[in-house]
From TrEMBL, chain A:
Main location: periplasm
InterPro entries: Bact_solute-bd_prot1, SBP
Natural source organism: Stagnihabitans tardus
Protein family (similarity comment): Belongs to the bacterial solute-binding protein 1 family.
Signal peptide boundaries: 1-25
Keyword Phosphoprotein on entry: no
Descriptive protein name: Extracellular solute-binding protein
One GO CC term on file: periplasmic space
Automatic annotation (TrEMBL), chain B:
Protein's GO biological process: transmembrane transport
One Pfam family matching this protein: BPD_transp_1
Family: Belongs to the binding-protein-dependent transport system permease family.
Native organism taxonomy: Bacteria, Pseudomonadati, Pseudomonadota, Alphaproteobacteria, Rhodobacterales
Name of protein: ABC transporter permease subunit
Organism: Stagnihabitans tardus
Length: 420, 268, 296
C-alpha cells in the first residue's frame, strides 16, 4: 500500500522523526462483538500484522452485537464521521441494509481484494452495483451437531443421519427421547433461524432478487414453514428454551442431544469436556422441494472499512496482508476459535484436513468445507430483520393449530407494510 | 380478629420482602456456581467462586471500568444535585406566573421517549467534538426534570422564617442557598443522592451510544457485553452482576438512615 | 406561594433556574424540535424527503403499531394500579410503629430498584426459564403441575413483564407513601379510633385523601414510565437481540420506535411520529389524572 511504501522510503532515508509522527497517523480501531470469537480472531490477525508493522496500532473494541448495530446506525444516521471505527464487523444478513441505507459510508474494496479467493455467496451478499465492500470473514455453513453416544443408545449410527429429511429427523427425535429420556434439540420458538436455514438450503429467501417479498407464492417458503411448524408441534423433539443463554446451555450441559446451527458454534461445543461424544452430520433437507439440499448458512459476518476512516489505507493494507493472504493465520483461528474462514486457499492448510478427536476422529472441517461449497447463494436483501419478526409473530399461533395459509397471508401483509 | 389480620399482614410483608430479596440471593449463589449449574437451576452455593472471579479479572480491565463508573456516577450525581436543587429552589421561592408556566411545561418534556431524541443528541455532541468523553456521558442528565420537581416539592417545607432571618442579617441570595438551605435540607439531598447515584451508575442506552473505546466503558456496559457471548458463561456474568450491583447497595446502606427522612415533605 | 416579587427577586428567580433551563433547552428542546421536523419526513435512512402527513396515514394502516399501542395500554391498565395499590398497602402496614422488623422490611422491599436494568434482566431471564428456579419452586409447592412457559407464551410473557416491573418499582413508590404517611398527624387517627371508625374506613376516609397529592404524583410518573416502557421488553422478553417476544406479545410503542430507528431499515420519520403519539397520550392521561385528583 501507498502508506507503507512511503514509510519504507522514510525508514531507508533514516528520518526517524518523521516515521514517529507517521506512527501517530496509523491508529486503527476495530468494532466487533463476541470477544471470545470475533475479537480473539481479530487479535490474532493484529499480532501477525503488527509484528511486521510495529508502527501500526490496532485496537479492538467489543460491544454486544445489538449494541454495536445500534451504535453504528446512530452514528451513520447522524451524518458525523468522528468516532466511527476504521473497520467494523457486520453480520451478513444486515450487509445490504447498511450498504443501501448509508451510501458512501463504506469503502468499496473491489480493486483491493482478490474476491475469486473467497466463497462466492459471501462476496455476493456484500456487492452493490458491481462494487464489493467486505472482507468476507467467517462462514455460517450449517451442520447438525449431535451427541454420538446418545444417538447410539437410540440405535443410530453416523450414516443414519446422512441424507435424511427434516421429518425423519423429527422421528429420530422421538426415538432418542424414548431411549435416553433427553430431547434431541433445544428450540427457542422466537428464533426464526431454522426458517432461514431451510429457505437458503433450497436457494430461496424471504425476498426476490429485486427486493420484493417472496412469501405468498413461494412454494419453498410454504414448505419450510409447514416443516418447521410440524417439528415445533412434536413436543418429544425438543426442549423449549428462551434466549440464547438457555439455548446454548441446553446442549452444553447435556440436557439435549444435539443442535443444528452454524459452524461458529463448534468452539462452544468443544468447550464442554465431552470429547469423543460429539459428531457432525449435514443438515436434513426439505422434502419434496425442488433444488433443496443439505447445505445452508446461518449467520456469519464480514469486515467492512469505513470510507471516512482516517487510517483507511492502513486498514485496507491490514486486511490484505493478513485476512486476504495469510493461510497460516486461518489455521490458527480455526484451531483456536473454531472460526471457519471464507478464504478458500486456507482450505488447503493442515488444520482444515485434520481429524478431530473431540468429534470421534471425524474430519469435521473438511466436511464443513465440502458443505460450504454447496451453499446456494441468495440475496438477503435489506429487510431480513423485519421478515424474521413477521415470521416469529406467527409461530406460536401456528403451533397452537393455526392455519398455514392464513399465517402466510399475515406474514406477507406485515412485511409489505414494514418495507414501505 | 384484629390479631389475625395483623398476623396476616405481617406474613404478607415478610413474603414481599423475601420476593424482593430473592433475585439478589440467586445472583450471589450463581456467582459461586458454574455456568452449567446455573442454567440447570442450582440454588445452592457452589465452589466456582474463585474461578469466576479470576475469569472476570482476566477478561475485564476492572480498574479502568470501575474508575469510569465511579467517576461518571459521582460527578453526574454532584452536578445534578446542584443544578436541579438550584432550579427547584428558584421555582418555589421566587414563584411567578411565567416561571410556573415554564415549570408545568417541563412535565410534558418528561413524556418524550428517549429513543426519539438519541440521534439529534448524538449529532450535537459529535459536532461539538465531545464523543467518547465523560462530558458527553454526564451532560444530558444534569438538568433532571424529575429532580427539579422533587426539590421544588421539598422546598415547600423549608422554613421561610430562616430565610427571612438570614435576609435581615444581610446574607445574599446565593449565601442563603449555600449556607442555610443546603445544610437544612441535607436529608432531602441524601435521598436524591441515592436515586441519582443509582440512575447514573446504571445508565446504559446513552453511554452505549457515545462511548467508542474500551477505556471509557462502564461496568454496566461491560456486563451487557459479557452477557451476549456466543456461548455465555453465566458464572462469569453472575459475578459481574454482583460487582456491578454492590456499589449501589453500599451507597443505599450508607445513606438510608436519611432516606425516608429525606423523602419526607418531598411530596406533600 | 409568594406573590408580588420585586424586580430584583424576579431576576434572582431566573438566575437560580437558568442553569437547568439552559441545559434543558440544549438537551431536550433541540432534539424534540428535530423529532417534530422528522415526523414529516419519509424515506430510508438518511435518504429522506418531505412527506407531509404520510407518516400519520401510515400509523392508521399499520397493524404492528396498533398492536404495540394495545400492548402498551394493557400494561398501563394492569401494571400501574397493581403497583400503586401494593405500594400503598405496604406503606400503611410498615407505618405501624408496633410492627417488628420495620427497617429490615422497608430496606428489603426497596432494594430491587437499585439494580441496573442489565443485571436485573439477566437475573429474571435465568430465574424464569422453563426449568428455572421459579418454575421449580412452583412445581415443588404443587401450585402448578406443568412448568409455565414464561417467555414463550404470549400471555405469560405479559405476566412476566408485569411481575418484573412490579418487583422493581413497588418499593420505590412505597417510600414516597411512607414519607407522606409520616407527615400525617397521628392524632387524626387517634381521634378517629376514639370515634369508633373501623380500620378500613380510616384507610379510605383518612389515609387516601391525605395522600392524594403523592398518589397523583406517583401515578403520573408511573404512567409516563409505562407509556415509555422499553427496558424490560427489550431485554427480558428478547430473543436473538430482538425484544417484544414472543409473537410481539410484549412489543411496546417505545420498543417499536427503537426497532424502527436502530434494528430495522431506519425509518426515522415514522419513528418520530410514533413518539409524538406517546407525548399526546401522556398529555391526555396526565390531564385526566389531575382532573380526577382535583374532583376528589
Amino acid at each position: 500500500m501507498k502508506m507503507t511504501a512511503f514509510k519504507g522510503v522514510m525508514a531507508v532515508a533514516g528520518i526517524q522523526l518523521i516515521t514517529a509522527t507517521m506512527a501517530l497517523a496509523t491508529d486503527i480501531t476495530v468494532w466487533c462483538w463476541a470477544p471470545e470469537f470475533n475479537g480473539a480472531a481479530m487479535n490474532e490477525a493484529i499480532a501477525r500484522y503488527t509484528a511486521a508493522n510495529p508502527d501500526t496500532k490496532i485496537t479492538v473494541v467489543d460491544f454486544a452485537k445489538g449494541d454495536l448495530e445500534q451504535k453504528l446506525q446512530t452514528q451513520l444516521a447522524s451524518g458525523t464521521t468522528e468516532g466511527l471505527p476504521d473497520i467494523v464487523l457486520i453480520e451478513d444478513y444486515g450487509a445490504q441494509k447498511y450498504l443501501l441505507s448509508f451510501p458512501g459510508a463504506f469503502e468499496p474494496l473491489t480493486d483491493k481484494i482478490d474476491y475469486s479467493q473467497f466463497a462466492k455467496y459471501k462476496v455476493d451478499l456484500a456487492t452493490v452495483d458491481g462494487q464489493t465492500y467486505s472482507l468476507p470473514f467467517d462462514s455460517g455453513v450449517t451442520g447438525l451437531f449431535y451427541r454420538s453416544d446418545l444417538l447410539e443408545q437410540a440405535g443410530y449410527k453416523a450414516d443414519d443421519l446422512k441424507d435424511i429429511t427434516w421429518e425423519q429427523l423429527s422421528a429420530i427425535g422421538d426415538k432418542v427421547k424414548e431411549a435416553t429420556g433427553k430431547p434431541l434439540l433445544s428450540i427457542d420458538i422466537n428464533d426464526a433461524g431454522a426458517m432461514r436455514i431451510m429457505l437458503q438450503s433450497a436457494g430461496s429467501w424471504y425476498f426476490n432478487a429485486d427486493g420484493t417479498p417472496n412469501i405468498k407464492d413461494n412454494p419453498v417458503f410454504k414448505a419450510a414453514l409447514t416443516t418447521w411448524v410440524g417439528m415445533l408441534k412434536n413436543q418429544n423433539l425438543y426442549k423449549s428454551v428462551s434466549g440464547w443463554g438457555e439455548y446454548t446451555g441446553a446442549f452444553n450441559n447435556g440436557d439435549v442431544a444435539g443442535v443444528f446451527t452454524g459452524v461458529w458454534m463448534t468452539g462452544g461445543i468443544k468447550g464442554n469436556n465431552m470429547a469423543g461424544k460429539w459428531a457432525v452430520a449435514p443438515i436434513p433437507k426439505l422434502d419434496g422441494v425442488e433444488g433443496a439440499g443439505h447445505a445452508s448458512n446461518l449467520g456469519g459476518s464480514s469486515w467492512y472499512v469505513l470510507s471516512s476512516a482516517p487510517s483507511k489505507d492502513a486498514a485496507i493494507d491490514f486486511l490484505q496482508k493478513v485476512w486476504a493472504s495469510d493461510v497460516d493465520f486461518y489455521q490458527k483461528i480455526l484451531v483456536g476459535q473454531g472460526a471457519f474462514g471464507a478464504y478458500l486457499p486456507a482450505r488447503e492448510g493442515e488444520a482444515y484436513s485434520a481429524s478431530d478427536d473431540y468429534f470421534g476422529g471425524q474430519s469435521v472441517w473438511k466436511d464443513f468445507s465440502d458443505w460450504q461449497a454447496a451453499i446456494p447463494g441468495v440475496n438477503y436483501g435489506i429487510f431480513t430483520n423485519e421478515a424474521d419478526a413477521a415470521v416469529a409473530a406467527q409461530l406460536p399461533g401456528l403451533v397452537a393449530g393455526g392455519d398455514i395459509d392464513a399465517a402466510i397471508e399475515a406474514i406477507d401483509a406485515q412485511i409489505a407494510q414494514q418495507i414501505q | 380478629m384484629n390479631r389475625l389480620i395483623s398476623l396476616l399482614a405481617q406474613a404478607g410483608l415478610w413474603l414481599a420482602a423475601f420476593i424482593s430479596v430473592f433475585p439478589f440471593l440467586w445472583m450471589i449463589t450463581g456467582a459461586t456456581n458454574t455456568a452449567n449449574d446455573i442454567t440447570g437451576g442450582r440454588f445452592l452455593p457452589g465452589t466456582n467462586l474463585l474461578p469466576n472471579i479470576a475469569k472476570f479479572f482476566e477478561l475485564v480491565d476492572a480498574g479502568q471500568v470501575f474508575f469510569n463508573s465511579f467517576f461518571v456516577a459521582i460527578t453526574g450525581t454532584a452536578l445534578t444535585l446542584i443544578v436541579s436543587s438550584l432550579a427547584g429552589y428558584g421555582f418555589e421561592i421566587f414563584a411567578s406566573k411565567t416561571r410556573d408556566r415554564v415549570f408545568a411545561g417541563l412535565l410534558l418534556l418528561l413524556s418524550v421517549p428517549f429513543a426519539a431524541m438519541m440521534i439529534p443528541l448524538f449529532v450535537m455532541f459529535s459536532s461539538a467534538g465531545l464523543i467518547n468523553s465523560y462530558i458527553a456521558m454526564i451532560a444530558p442528565g444534569i438538568a433532571s426534570i424529575f429532580m427539579i420537581f422533587y426539590f421544588r416539592q421539598n422546598t415547600k417545607s423549608f422554613p421561610h422564617e430562616l430565610r427571612d432571618a438570614a435576609k435581615l442579617d444581610g446574607l445574599k441570595e446565593w449565601q442563603i442557598f449555600w449556607f442555610i438551605y443546603i445544610p437544612v435540607m441535607r436529608s432531602t439531598y441524601a435521598a436524591a443522592m441515592i436515586i441519582l447515584f443509582m440512575t447514573n451508575w446504571n445508565a446504559y442506552l446513552w453511554p452505549l451510544i457515545v462511548l467508542q473505546t474500551n477505556d471509557m466503558k462502564t461496568i454496566t456496559l461491560t456486563v451487557a457485553s459479557l452477557a451476549t457471548a456466543y456461548t455465555p458463561d453465566y458464572g462469569l456474568i453472575m459475578i459481574a452482576n454482583v460487582l456491578a450491583t454492590l456499589p449501589t447497595i453500599l451507597v443505599f446502606f450508607l445513606l438510608q438512615r436519611r432516606f425516608v427522612e429525606g423523602m419526607l415533605g418531598g411530596v406533600k | 406561594m409568594h406573590t408580588g416579587l420585586t424586580r430584583r427577586e424576579n431576576l434572582t428567580g431566573w438566575a437560580f433556574t437558568a442553569p437547568a433551563l439552559v441545559l434543558l433547552g440544549l438537551f431536550m428542546i433541540y432534539p424534540i424540535l428535530w423529532s417534530l421536523y422528522m415526523s414529516f419526513m419519509t424515506g430510508k435512512g438518511m435518504n429522506f424527503k418531505f412527506g407531509g402527513f404520510a407518516n400519520i396515514y401510515r400509523l392508521t394502516q399499520d397493524p404492528i403499531f396498533l398492536h404495540a399501542l394495545g400492548n402498551t395500554l394493557t400494561f398501563l391498565a394492569i401494571q400501574v394500579p397493581i403497583m400503586i395499590i401494593l405500594a400503598l398497602v405496604f406503606a400503611v402496614a410498615l407505618n405501624n410503629p408496633r410492627l417488628r422488623g420495620r427497617a429490615v422490611l422497608r430496606t428489603a422491599i426497596f432494594l430491587p430498584c437499585v439494580t441496573s436494568l442489565v443485571v436485573y434482566s439477566v437475573l429474571f431471564k435465568s430465574m424464569f426459564a422453563d426449568d428455572g428456579v421459579v418454575n421449580d419452586a412452583l412445581l415443588f409447592l404443587h401450585i402448578i403441575s406443568e412448568p409455565i412457559p414464561w417467555m414463550n407464551d404470549p400471555f405469560w410473557a405479559k405476566v412476566l413483564i408485569i411481575l418484573a416491573i412490579t418487583w422493581r418499582w413497588t418499593g420505590y413508590n412505597m417510600v414516597f407513601y411512607l414519607a407522606a404517611l409520616q407527615n400525617i398527624d397521628p392524632s387524626i387517627y387517634e381521634q378517629a379510633r376514639i370515634d369508633g371508625v373501623p380500620a378500613r374506613a380510616r384507610f379510605f376516609k383518612i389515609t387516601i385523601p391525605m395522600l392524594r397529592h403523592v398518589i397523583l404524583f406517583t401515578t403520573v410518573l408511573s404512567t409516563i414510565g409505562t407509556l415509555q416502557l422499553f427496558d424490560e421488553v427489550n431485554t427480558i422478553t428478547a430473543s436473538q437481540g430482538q425484544g417484544g417476544r414472543p409473537a410481539d406479545a410484549t412489543l411496546t410503542l417505545s420498543l417499536y420506535i427503537y426497532n424502527l430507528t436502530f434494528r430495522f431499515m431506519p425509518s426515522f420519520g415514522y419513528a418520530a411520529t410514533i413518539s409524538w403519539v406517546i407525548v399526546i397520550l401522556v398529555g391526555l392521561l396526565s390531564w385526566a389524572q389531575f382532573r380526577l385528583a382535583r374532583e376528589k
